[in-house]
Amino acid sequence: MSKQWTVHNPEGSQRVIVTKELPGDRWLDILVAANCSVEVCESSDVLTGDDIKERFGGGVDGVIGQLTEDWNADLFAALAAAGGRAYSNYAVGYNNVDVAGATAAGIPVGNTPGVLTETTAEMAAALTLAAGRRVVEADRFMRGGHYHGWLPTMYMGQRFHGKTVGIIGCGRIGAAFGRIMVEGFKMHLVYYDLYPNERLESFVADYSELLVAHGEAPVMATRLESIDDVLRTADVVSLHTVLDESTTHLIDASRLSLMKENAILINSSRGPVIDEAALVEHCRTHPDFKAGLDVFEDEPAMKPGLADLDNVTIVPHIASATTWTRQGMATLAAANVAAILQGYPVWDGEDVLTFLEGDVPKFAPSIVNAGELGLS
Ligand code: DGY
Q: In this structure, what are the phi and psi dihedrals at residue 375, rounded to the nearest 5 degrees?
């Protein structure tokens, strides 16, 4: 059945398709200021490649698409054939995008970094606390009318203070999560990443000095040699890798078996980084082990048995879901498309927050294949 679309600024001279409704107004203002007519799909169904191609119709200039859509080489070729010159994912992650295929079709691919960092890290922390302190289980117990009086042994969980947090993939989000756990719970930090995160290590060293100066115990940040070392050492392990061939099923049955019996595993990166069937089995046979998941291997489906486990806390891919972040993502995605369509350069600074207010941006905030396409 064909989907409902809302058209904004129909007199605009360039046509931009937005495959889902986006929050806020600034993103639309940016596209309208770039003289675009903007067509927004109102359906919450995931659009297929054929749905999207059908909407290209006789011609389209740019698209803002979703992480749930398969932006493969064929779709980018169709976009280019329809006159398309710009695409932005409404996400920082772009494992749903065939970037080589887009580059071959001459299409710049935008993403939305920098506005999800703390928000996603905060959700990883929320899942850690919920899992470790059994918040969801206890909530269900209360709502079920089972609380008949305080007991010394009721819903005992984990204490975080002074324990060790482990980060796998210590980029922006991983480091932000690490800092929350170090600063909030005075945890030691171990991490595995291909590259050292010197900024994080130096922050933790300075923070440790501050703690010691106030008569508290020091904390340490250490980059370990391997993922296995992190899994063996940490009490809480949080995954912050990209998803590609090298990270698919990075956490499988054998790696789960390295973790402490009562460890907590958090995933707010991409579902397939964990072998979810192996996790179900591990959680079933290790009741003291906890997992907090924002993402799922076959999203939106869950592997059989996952939802039956009390030691698993599950939320529907909402780690970036704060109003500020989701509006910021919309702004960055729109600015990516509008800037490319107007021939503006690609931003080369780290800080994209400058795009979130003030004048209409005259840069594309983040184009992942800018180098390959010779854009600067
Ligand atoms: C992303 O941006 O990659 C998140 O998964 C969704 O916000």
A: -90, 140
376 residues of the chain, pLDDT tens digit each = 578 999 999 999 999 999 999 999 999 999 999 999 999 999 999 999 999 999 999 899 999 999 999 999 999 999 999 999 999 999 999 999 999 999 999 999 999 999 999 999 999 999 999 999 999 999 999 999 999 999 999 999 999 999 999 999 999 999 999 999 999 999 999 999 999 999 999 999 999 999 999 999 999 999 999 999 999 999 999 999 999 999 999 999 999 999 999 999 999 999 999 999 999 999 999 999 999 999 999 999 999 999 999 999 999 999 999 999 999 999 999 999 999 999 999 999 888 899 999 999 999 999 999 999 999 7
Find out whether the beta carbon of 333 lies less than 6 Å from any atom of ligand 1.
no
Q: Judge if 141 and 195 occupy the same domain.
A: yes
Q: What tokens does 332 get?
A: 């960055």
User: Quick check: CB of 14 below 6 Å from ligand 1?
Assistant: no
Flag whether 373 is in a domain: no
Rounded Cα gap, residues 343 and 120, in angstroms = 32
Phi, psi of 342, rounded to the nearest 5 degrees: -95, 0
Torsion angles phi and psi, residue 238, rounded to 5 = -120, 135
Asked whether residue 15 falls in the same domain as residue 111, the answer is: yes
Domain that holds residue 282: 117-314
One domain, residues 237 and 262: yes
Answer whether 91 contacts ligand 1 (Cβ < 6 A).
yes
* Catalytic residue selected from 270, 276, 297, 326: 270
* Residue 66 CA to ligand 1 centre (angstroms): 9
Residue 55 tokens read as 């909407």
122 shares its domain with 26: no
Q: How far apart are the first and last CA of the chain?
A: 42
Does the CB atom of residue 92 touch ligand 1 within 6 A? Answer: yes
| Domain end call among 289, 314, 339 | 314
- The answer to whether the predicted template modeling score (pTM) of the entire model surpasses 0.90 is yes
Q: Give yes or no: 55 in active site.
A: no
Do residue 130 and residue 275 come from a single domain? yes
366 occurs within a structural domain: no
Q: Are residues 108 and 19 in the same domain?
A: yes
Nearest CA to ligand 1 atom 2: 91
Give the pairing type, strands 5-8 and 36-41: antiparallel
Mark whether 299 is an active-site residue. Answer: yes
